Amino acid sequence: MIGERLRRLRKKHGWTAKEVGKRLGIAESTVSGYENGHRSPPLDLLVRFADLYGVSTDYLLGRTDHPAFIGRANTENVRVPEPLWGIMRESLPNEEATFLYEFLNAPHAKRRQVMRYWRFLQLEEEENP
């Protein structure tokens, strides 16, 4: 579970195992070992992985399917307070809650693209009800 999520998050960020290793101060082979499930990262490194990817350690451990993380402010990302995330997780289907999380944590340029497409769909619906 941990390895699959580490690999998925690395690819989502567009990083190689070598780049992740460099960011964390560990060898590329160590990153690969964690991703392939041959090894498990120690707790301190698990926390550093979570910080790097902007997710909770509970998400990496498979204790939740919601990667929400409330941490360092990132000027490009929107941070939603944990109580609000709790309401969203309880109120929305998993796929929609995950979409909102990913949308809010996407780079500003990508969020703008999604908003433009959404406006396009709204205009299209108005023209063809």
UniProtKB/TrEMBL annotation:
Domain HTH cro/C1-type: 6-60
Keywords, ordered alphabetically: DNA-binding
Keyword Transport: no
Presence of keyword Cell wall biogenesis/degradation: no
A Pfam short name: HTH_3
InterPro entries in the cross-refs: Cro/C1-type_HTH, Lambda_DNA-bd_dom_sf
Organism domain of life: Bacteria
CDD domains assigned to the protein according to its UniProt record, in alphabetical order: HTH_XRE (cd00093)
A single MF term (Gene Ontology): DNA binding
Protein name (database record): Transcriptional regulator
Species name: Calditerricola satsumensis
